[in-house]
């Protein structure tokens, strides 16, 4: 019988954690154990004998980047892949410098998650295409980092602007010809990048910037 690939997932957002765990556990040949904080992961992961780690960046308490650095110090050969909403140069290169071998975006994780985990397990360095492009561009530009307001994408800024005008999720979905689920995903990514919990906090933080 083929040995299961043991995946450790570190993700604080409950529905994201459950969704990713479900995708992994429902795929033949994979088994997932999930943790909600970096501290919990550091305490238990090495006892659970995982093969690969999926790591969020924005965690309560210790960040995923700091957790990655500590895990690599303790077990240099353990492959870690960031799974996050952040796609700014600073977080990308901090994560890679901390020892991450891969970097995928949550919005693309459903489509490429299993392939990326398998690639990571086999010694590869999987990255979402937009992340790989930014890495290449950084080298081509001599390491200069591009800056944007909290690294919000054009679509995220567009949605935030509509939120500021009082539109609800369903109305935004209709205006942008997107599904309500897609809008919720974008809004979650906006909240995570801004480090806020709701639209009022998000709009207050971006006041004068959008």
Give the amount of beta strand, in percent. 5-15%
The quaternary organization reads as single chain
Determine the structural class based on helices, strands and strand pairing.
alpha/beta
Order of helices and strands: EHEHEHEHEHHHHHH
Uncertain residue segments: 143-148
Distance between the termini: 55 Å
Q: What is the count of helical runs?
A: 10
Q: Based on CA inertia axes, which overall geometry fits? A: globular
Strand order of the largest sheet: 2-1-3-4-5
Query: How is the main sheet built?
Result: 5 strands, parallel
Rg computed from alpha carbons, rounded to a whole number of angstroms: 18 Å
Secondary structure: helix percent: 40-55%
State the total count of DSSP E strands: 5
Residue-averaged pLDDT, rounded? 87
Question: Can you give keywords for this protein?
Answer:
210 residues, alpha/beta, 5-stranded parallel β-sheet, 12% strand, globular
């Amino acid at each position: 019988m083929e040995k299961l690939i043991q995946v450790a997932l570190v993700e604080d957002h409950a529905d994201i954690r459950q969704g990713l765990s479900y995708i992994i556990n429902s795929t033949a040949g994979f088994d997932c154990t999930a943790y909600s904080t970096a501290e919990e992961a550091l305490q238990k992961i090495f006892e659970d004998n995982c093969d690969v780690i999926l790591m969020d960046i924005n965690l309560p308490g210790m960040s995923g980047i700091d957790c990655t650095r500590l895990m690599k110090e303790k077990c240099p050969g353990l492959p870690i892949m960031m799974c996050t909403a952040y796609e700014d140069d600073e977080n990308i290169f901090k994560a890679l410098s901390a020892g991450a071998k891969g970097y995928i975006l949550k919005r693309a994780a459903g489509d490429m998650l299993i392939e990326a985990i398998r690639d990571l397990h086999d010694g590869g360095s999987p990255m979402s295409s937009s992340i790989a492009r930014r890495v290449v561009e950084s080298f081509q530009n001599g390491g200069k980092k591009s800056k944007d307001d909290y690294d919000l994408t054009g679509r995220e800024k567009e949605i935030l602007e509509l939120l500021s005008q009082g539109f609800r999720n369903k109305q935004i979905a209709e205006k942008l010809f997107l599904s309500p689920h897609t809008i919720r995903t974008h809004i979650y990514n906006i909240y995570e990048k801004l480090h806020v919990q709701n639209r009022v906090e998000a709009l207050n933080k971006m006041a004068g910037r959008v």
